Amino acid sequence: MASAENDTRLPADWLLTNVSRLVTLDAASGGAGPLGVIERGALAARNGRIIWVGPEQRLAAEVAVEAVAPAARVDAGGRATLPGFVDAHTHFIFAGDRSEEFHLRHAGVGYEELARQGRGILSTVRATRAASADELRALGEARLRSFAAHGTTTVESKSGYGLDLATEGRILEVMAALARAGETVALPRVVPTFLGAHTLPPESRGSPEARAAYVDMVCDEMLPAFAGRARFCDVFCESSAFSVEESRRILLRARALGYGLKIHAEQLSASGGARLAAELGAVSADHLDHATDDELDALRDAGVTGVLLPGCSFTLSAPYPAARRLLDRGMTVALATDFNPGTSYSESMQMMIALAVSAMGMSLEQALRAATLGGASALALADEVGSLAPGKRCDLIILRGADERELAYHFGVNLVAATYISGRRAEV
Ligand SMILES: [Zn+2]
Q1: What pLDDT shows up at residue 343?
Q2: Could you tell me the distance, in angstroms and rounded to a whole number, from the CA of residue 289 to the centre of ligand 1?
């Protein structure tokens, strides 16, 4: 061994060894195939960032392994390791319970009757407005632990169940508190998005003037108040929600205030949201179920990531998004859960990968890329997360089995044995 002063090896404070297959998703790793798989791989980190990835037989020659504390040496037990999942589209801060509504809907009760009974999205708005910050935080933290248990290490989080200045502010405060909690306990990283234009609040539904006044409030009060607190601004551009003109106005104001842009586009009908996303250079356009070929070309040319949300199709017994049409034209694709109480109540990216492969014609390689690097690109975080490469955060999952190809095939069960966020094990 070299003496300390002549030691040119990399200094590390965290090690992962005894990995059957290290799925790097990094083309520069020297690993095999489109996923960059290193058999008998190892990984070293320092201060929560990856500093070295390679075959375990080279580890001790290139990294100062002896200096790593025993508690910071992780033995993967001969199992497969992947980057943590990046879930780029969720609505996980809310109160209330809509399980009864789900079962009524599946029993054939129509949308109008459910609305007459006071169910639907406005029931979540009522419950969320009535909840304290402490209550929302406890609900949010429990859900974050569940995201981590299923392998997610970064999670985007949309507001949008407050729909007034005070409650939207409280939701963003809760997200910030959860992000701070993640500095001491290992919780998935929270990326906050402001979605004041999720749906019209009940008090604004009576007249065109009340509607216009709500859009004014989003632009003139909420957006300035939340600038710097939310990373992105999103709009639900849909005939039943906000028009292209309203969406453009909100997003232009948001862009001027420094927000990145996202759009719920072409989910339930051809809404014009995809074209708007291309025109404004949004970071992502989400859903895209009804997007035309021309619109997809425009999104690709503008560098917009398409976020596909198969959990909604599964929940609503609706057709799945046409992933092949995006992939075949070279678009960057992300898979996300759309975790929300109405149309996709699942924290499991493994479930979305299973649906992508079995129902959307994606290969496992495409689905895994979409669930990691694709999600990172939909959050403008591709330099930080999404692959196991030097410089990125040490966010990874150890599976229960030795081969990542069990994903999608072995469905409906949790295949994740352990989740590490910045090198710290998530307690789930
Ligand atoms: Zn959504």
Answers
A1: 95
A2: 13
Measured between alpha carbons, how far is residue 6 from residues 1, 3, 15, 61 in Å?
A: 10, 5, 22, 13
The alpha carbon of 182 and the centre of ligand 1 are apart by a number of angstroms equal to 24
pLDDT over 70 (residue 3)? no
Q: How far is the CA of 265 from the centre of ligand 1 (A)?
A: 10
Q: Is residue 383 part of a domain?
A: no
**CATH number of the domain enclosing 196:** 3.20.20.140
Same domain, 109 and 238: yes
**Residue 3: which residues within 8 A CB-CB, separation 6 or more?**
none
Tell me what pLDDT residue 404 has.
Answer: 98
Token digits for 252?
A: 């232009």
Task: Answer whether residue 114 is part of any domain.
Answer: yes
Ligand 1 centre from 90 Cα, in Å?
6
Ligand 1 centroid distance, CA of 224 (Å): 23
Q: Yes or no: say if 231 and 192 are a contact pair by the CB < 8 Å rule.
A: yes
Residue pLDDT, tens place only, 93-149: 999 999 999 999 999 998 889 988 989 999 999 999 999 999 999 999 999 999 999
